[in-house]
Amino acid sequence: MTPHTPLAVSGYAQVGISGLSKVQVSLEPDANPPTENDPHFKKLNWIDAEILPAPTTWSGLPEAPPDTHGFDTHGRPITWPLRLTNAHWAALLPGVPAGDYTFRCRTIDQPGQAQPLPRPFRESGHAAIESVGVVVR
Protein backbone atom coordinates (compact mmCIF):
# COMPACT_ATOMS: atom_id res chain seq x y z
CA MET A 1 0.00 0.00 0.00
CA THR A 2 1.28 3.45 -0.91
CA PRO A 3 1.25 6.23 1.72
CA HIS A 4 -1.72 8.63 1.65
CA THR A 5 -3.62 6.44 -0.83
CA PRO A 6 -7.18 5.40 0.12
CA LEU A 7 -7.52 1.70 0.95
CA ALA A 8 -10.55 -0.28 -0.24
CA VAL A 9 -11.59 -3.06 2.15
CA SER A 10 -14.46 -5.53 1.97
CA GLY A 11 -15.65 -8.72 3.57
CA TYR A 12 -18.61 -10.73 4.78
CA ALA A 13 -20.44 -10.18 8.04
CA GLN A 14 -22.13 -13.12 9.71
CA VAL A 15 -25.61 -12.01 10.73
CA GLY A 16 -26.82 -13.50 13.99
CA ILE A 17 -30.24 -13.85 15.53
CA SER A 18 -30.07 -10.23 16.76
CA GLY A 19 -29.72 -8.93 13.19
CA LEU A 20 -27.19 -6.50 11.71
CA SER A 21 -27.46 -2.72 11.60
CA LYS A 22 -23.91 -1.88 10.51
CA VAL A 23 -20.33 -3.00 10.01
CA GLN A 24 -17.47 -0.88 11.30
CA VAL A 25 -13.76 -0.93 10.47
CA SER A 26 -10.70 0.63 12.08
CA LEU A 27 -7.13 1.18 10.91
CA GLU A 28 -4.95 2.22 13.83
CA PRO A 29 -1.17 2.89 13.92
CA ASP A 30 0.81 0.27 15.83
CA ALA A 31 2.77 3.15 17.40
CA ASN A 32 -0.40 4.08 19.35
CA PRO A 33 -1.86 0.73 20.52
CA PRO A 34 -5.20 0.62 22.35
CA THR A 35 -4.86 1.06 26.08
CA GLU A 36 -5.08 -1.91 28.42
CA ASN A 37 -8.23 -0.45 29.98
CA ASP A 38 -10.03 -0.78 26.59
CA PRO A 39 -9.99 -4.57 25.99
CA HIS A 40 -13.06 -4.42 23.71
CA PHE A 41 -11.73 -1.54 21.56
CA LYS A 42 -14.59 0.83 22.40
CA LYS A 43 -12.30 3.87 22.04
CA LEU A 44 -10.98 3.12 18.53
CA ASN A 45 -11.81 5.37 15.60
CA TRP A 46 -14.50 3.15 14.03
CA ILE A 47 -15.63 3.98 10.48
CA ASP A 48 -18.99 2.76 9.18
CA ALA A 49 -18.78 0.47 6.16
CA GLU A 50 -21.53 0.08 3.57
CA ILE A 51 -23.60 -3.09 3.72
CA LEU A 52 -24.02 -4.04 0.08
CA PRO A 53 -27.47 -4.85 -1.36
CA ALA A 54 -28.97 -8.31 -1.30
CA PRO A 55 -27.90 -10.72 -4.05
CA THR A 56 -29.99 -10.69 -7.22
CA THR A 57 -29.84 -14.48 -7.59
CA TRP A 58 -30.11 -17.20 -4.95
CA SER A 59 -28.08 -20.36 -5.58
CA GLY A 60 -28.40 -19.78 -9.30
CA LEU A 61 -32.13 -19.07 -9.13
CA PRO A 62 -33.33 -15.68 -10.43
CA GLU A 63 -35.53 -15.35 -7.32
CA ALA A 64 -36.33 -17.22 -4.14
CA PRO A 65 -39.02 -19.92 -4.49
CA PRO A 66 -42.58 -18.79 -3.73
CA ASP A 67 -43.60 -18.64 -0.06
CA THR A 68 -39.98 -18.59 1.17
CA HIS A 69 -39.95 -17.11 4.68
CA GLY A 70 -38.51 -13.57 4.71
CA PHE A 71 -39.07 -12.94 0.98
CA ASP A 72 -41.80 -10.98 -0.82
CA THR A 73 -43.99 -12.29 -3.64
CA HIS A 74 -41.32 -11.23 -6.16
CA GLY A 75 -38.63 -13.36 -4.52
CA ARG A 76 -36.73 -10.45 -2.94
CA PRO A 77 -35.82 -10.20 0.76
CA ILE A 78 -38.34 -8.18 2.79
CA THR A 79 -35.49 -6.76 4.85
CA TRP A 80 -31.75 -6.90 4.31
CA PRO A 81 -29.62 -8.37 5.66
CA LEU A 82 -31.63 -11.40 6.69
CA ARG A 83 -30.93 -12.91 10.10
CA LEU A 84 -28.70 -16.00 10.13
CA THR A 85 -27.13 -15.20 6.75
CA ASN A 86 -23.98 -13.43 5.54
CA ALA A 87 -23.90 -9.90 4.18
CA HIS A 88 -21.16 -8.44 1.97
CA TRP A 89 -19.78 -5.05 3.08
CA ALA A 90 -17.24 -2.55 1.73
CA ALA A 91 -15.49 0.62 2.89
CA LEU A 92 -12.91 3.06 1.59
CA LEU A 93 -10.43 3.99 4.31
CA PRO A 94 -8.60 7.31 4.08
CA GLY A 95 -4.93 7.30 3.11
CA VAL A 96 -2.44 7.18 5.98
CA PRO A 97 1.28 7.97 6.34
CA ALA A 98 3.91 5.24 5.98
CA GLY A 99 4.07 2.90 8.95
CA ASP A 100 2.69 -0.25 10.55
CA TYR A 101 -1.04 -0.44 11.27
CA THR A 102 -3.63 -2.84 12.64
CA PHE A 103 -6.93 -3.30 10.79
CA ARG A 104 -9.98 -4.41 12.79
CA CYS A 105 -13.61 -5.04 11.90
CA ARG A 106 -16.76 -5.45 14.00
CA THR A 107 -20.51 -5.53 13.57
CA ILE A 108 -23.29 -3.66 15.34
CA ASP A 109 -26.48 -5.67 15.82
CA GLN A 110 -30.05 -4.32 15.45
CA PRO A 111 -30.34 -3.39 19.17
CA GLY A 112 -27.12 -1.33 18.78
CA GLN A 113 -24.69 -3.64 20.61
CA ALA A 114 -21.16 -3.96 19.22
CA GLN A 115 -20.34 -7.58 18.38
CA PRO A 116 -18.80 -9.86 19.24
CA LEU A 117 -19.73 -9.43 22.86
CA PRO A 118 -17.20 -10.75 25.37
CA ARG A 119 -17.81 -14.37 26.32
CA PRO A 120 -18.33 -14.70 30.07
CA PHE A 121 -17.00 -18.27 30.19
CA ARG A 122 -13.72 -19.41 28.67
CA GLU A 123 -15.19 -22.60 27.17
CA SER A 124 -18.24 -20.91 25.58
CA GLY A 125 -16.71 -20.44 22.13
CA HIS A 126 -14.48 -18.02 20.27
CA ALA A 127 -15.55 -14.38 20.23
CA ALA A 128 -12.96 -11.74 19.53
CA ILE A 129 -12.43 -8.77 17.27
CA GLU A 130 -9.95 -10.13 14.78
CA SER A 131 -7.00 -8.04 13.66
CA VAL A 132 -4.77 -7.99 10.59
CA GLY A 133 -1.45 -6.19 10.24
CA VAL A 134 -1.14 -3.65 7.43
CA VAL A 135 2.18 -2.18 6.28
CA VAL A 136 2.21 1.14 4.41
CA ARG A 137 5.46 1.84 2.53
Describe the structure.
The protein has 137 residues and is an all-beta fold. The protein has one domain (7-136): Immunoglobulin-like. It contains no helices and 8 strands. The chain has strands at 7-14, 22-29, 47-48, 50-51, 86-93, 99-108, 114-115, 131-136. The strands form 2 sheets. Strands 2, 3, 6, 7 and 8 form a 5-stranded antiparallel β-sheet that branches. Strands 1-5-4 form a 3-stranded antiparallel β-sheet, with no helix packed on it.
Percent in helix? under 10%
Overall pLDDT confidence: 89
Note the gap between the termini. 6 Å
Q: Write the element-wise H/E pattern from the N-terminal end onward.
A: EEEEEEEE
- Per CATH, the architecture is Sandwich
Secondary structure: number of strands: 8
Largest sheet: 5 strands, antiparallel
Which term fits the overall shape? globular
- How big a fraction of the residues is strand? 25-35%
What's the level 1 CATH class? Mainly Beta
Uncertain ranges: none
Rg measurement, Å: 18 Å
Briefly note the CATH topology name: Immunoglobulin-like
Class by alpha and beta content: mainly beta
Number of domains: 1
Number of helices: 0
SSE topology sketch:
Blueprint: E1 7-14, E2 22-29, E3 47-48, E4 50-51, E5 86-93, E6 99-108, E7 114-115, E8 131-136
Antiparallel strand pairs: 1-5, 2-3, 2-6, 4-5, 6-7, 6-8
Structure keywords:
single chain; 137 residues; mainly beta; Immunoglobulin-like; 0% helix
Quick overview:
This protein has 137 residues and is mainly beta. It has no helices and eight strands. It has a single domain, classed as Sandwich (Immunoglobulin-like), CATH 2.60.40.650.
